[in-house]
Automatic annotation (TrEMBL):
Cell compartments where the protein resides: Cytoplasm
Transmembrane segments: none
Pathway participation: Cell wall biogenesis; peptidoglycan biosynthesis
EC number in record: 6.3.2.8
One Pfam family, short name: Mur_ligase_C
Keywords, ordered alphabetically: ATP-binding, Cytoplasm, Ligase, Nucleotide-binding
Main location class: cytoplasm
Taxonomic placement: Eukaryota, Viridiplantae, Streptophyta, Embryophyta, Tracheophyta
Protein name: UDP-N-acetylmuramate--L-alanine ligase
Molecular-function annotations in GO: ATP binding; UDP-N-acetylmuramate-L-alanine ligase activity
Length: 527
């Protein structure tokens, strides 16, 4: 077990505590039992339980003479700044599996950190120069890896620079980590976590000893958000935020969709398209692009290949001979999927099944091949499964084995239970099922409401919505209002600001007032 060190105390934010407020609002003191892993523990209670608290204040500045990350032999000490987030915690967990010594720091405790502590990481609550020094102040990490959310003036970053420790942003670390693998990078504005998790789960069930990292907790992954194996394949959830995926060089790139997301980073949808075009430039020669042909935004990438860059797209092959925008000599094959029959792989006859999920007929270029069954609901998950099927068959390559391969992947697809906080059943009150979902974009809200209607077609649907960041709420407020109008009743909470302040003087109450239709009657606001 690792060590927990506290140097500052902050309040916690967690879905569990938020939902406890909802419980109190609706049901007074009616007891409600949530899954134990939904609520982050009080940091003081946790430290008391572990009996391993110390406060470090002394600092000794010394020059680190040798800061080399030995990826081959996997030796050395790696420190992660911002380790409490989903992305960096997964990288830290993989580093532990690889044999590195791991430490990390964050301002507040998160549920991701408990598994790291149990696995042997040394964790610090609060940022301090003492976090990146050995007990006697004479030893420093071989590398520091920083989250995209960490500013350059962070005290640990500045101290690492001063003593010569190499500092990696998450994107560069991922590039170094995956460069020797057959990288399958799952990207897109929505559905990355579920698609990457489903893909890794299916490949593992088919006997692939792969490595995988996703940005969410997956109940069917033994280590929560990673697989660590000795095979050549590496499945990675590739995030466009802050250009994080631009350092990757995938053998297979998956694009689930394209939408205006991360409005604090991207000025408009064209900016999102631009960064995805740069990402596609990174596909290795002879590689593959698996893309949703039904997504208007994703489809625009293919249209721009044909219209704007001088590249030719015919017969599913992109050949780049001269365009500076896309780089030189990048040849890759395109595979499309969706509901429309013009796609290479598509679903037809989609219908709900007795598990609450979906059944459909898998077709390839007009030929029905197999019936696929999913236990997770929603047409968006049908699309996610099509991305998985197209990718698995692309990796296998031999079309003569496609029927056998489809037969092998049908069972794990039907067994996949989904990702935490993606239509996740967390409790029941007098027969009323309570689901938690991370949906924080209008497209995602619509998808989860459709999934709920599919599973419970004759039930009233009450939505408790917590907006995530003021910038997203202000820019997409009309789309949020339209999406939420599909519910029977809506509760809008105070905004979870994350890294922002309310510079727009707009809040959850304003969103609640803008929803038109039945939900506008009897609207509540929880402060």
């Amino acid at each position: 077990m690792g060590k927990l060190v506290a140097s500052v105390s902050n309040s916690l934010h967690s879905p569990g505590s938020f939902l406890e407020k909802i419980e109190t609002y609706f049901f007074g003191n009616i007891p409600l039992s949530f899954k134990s892993n939904r609520t982050a523990p009080s940091i003081l209670l946790f430290m008391k339980k572990k009996n391993s608290v110390s406060v470090l204040t002394n600092c000794t500045f010394k020059r680190n003479e040798e800061c080399i990350v030995d990826f081959k032999n996997r030796k050395g000490w790696i420190h992660f700044v911002g380790i409490g987030g989903s992305g960096l915690s997964a990288l830290a967990k993989l580093a532990l599996k690889q044999g590195f010594e791991v430490s990390g720091s964050d301002l507040v405790w998160s549920s991701y950190m408990e598994g790291l502590l149990e696995a042997g990481a040394n964790l610090h609550i609060g940022h301090s120069v003492s976090n990146i020094q050995g007990n006697d102040g004479s030893r420093f990490p071989n590398a520091v890896v920083a989250s995209s959310a960490i500013p350059q003036d962070n005290v640990e970053i500045l101290h690492a620079k001063s003593v010569g420790v190499p500092i990696y942003k998450r994107d560069y670390w991922l590039a170094k980590l995956t460069e020797k693998y057959n990288l399958i990078a799952v990207s897109g504005s929505h559905g990355k976590s579920t698609t990457a998790s489903m893909l890794a789960y299916v490949l593992k069930a088919m006997g692939d000893d792969l490595t995988a990292i996703v940005g969410a907790h997956v109940p069917q992954f033994p280590d929560g958000s990673i697989f660590y194996g000795g095979g050549k394949n590496f499945v990675l959830e590739a995030d466009e935020y802050d250009g994080c995926f631009l350092g990757l060089s995938p053998s297979v790139a998956v694009v689930t969709n394209l939408d205006w997301e991360h409005v604090d980073i991207f000025e408009d949808e064209d900016a999102v398209k631009s960064i995805f075009r740069r990402f596609l430039k990174q596909i290795r020669v002879g590689g593959h692009l698996v893309i949703c042909g039904d997504s208007q935004g994703a489809r625009s990438l293919l249209d721009q290949i044909k219209q704007d860059t001088g590249l030719k797209y015919s017969g599913g092959v992109v050949s780049n001979q001269s365009s500076d925008l896309w780089g030189q000599g990048h040849d890759y094959k395109i595979i499309t999927y969706g509901f429309s029959s013009f796609n290479d792989w598509y679903a037809e006859s989609v219908c709900p099944n007795v598990q609450g999920g979906s059944d459909y007929i898998l077709c390839e270029r007009g030929r029905p091949l197999a019936q696929i069954s999913l236990q997770i609901p929603g047409v968006h998950n049908v699309l996610n499964s099509l991305a998985v099927i197209a990718t698995v068959l692309t990796l296998i390559g031999d079309k003569r084995q496609s029927h056998e391969s489809i037969a092998c992947l049908k069972l794990p697809l039907s067994k996949f239970m989904g990702v935490s906080r993606r239509f996740d059943l967390i409790g029941t009150i007098y027969g009323c099922h309570i689901y938690d979902d991370f949906a924080h974009h209008p497209t995602e809200v619509r998808a989860v409401l459709q999934a709920a209607r599919q599973r419970f077609p004759n039930k009233a649907l009450i939505v408790v919505f917590q907006p995530h960041t003021y910038s997203r709420l202000v820019v997409l407020k009309d789309d949020f209002a339209n999406a939420l109008s599909e519910a029977d009743q809506v509760v809008v909470s105070a905004v979870y600001a994350a890294r922002e302040t309310n510079d727009w003087n707009f809040n959850g109450k304003d969103l609640a007032a803008s929803i038109i239709g039945p939900p506008s009657e009897g609207m509540w606001l929880i402060n």
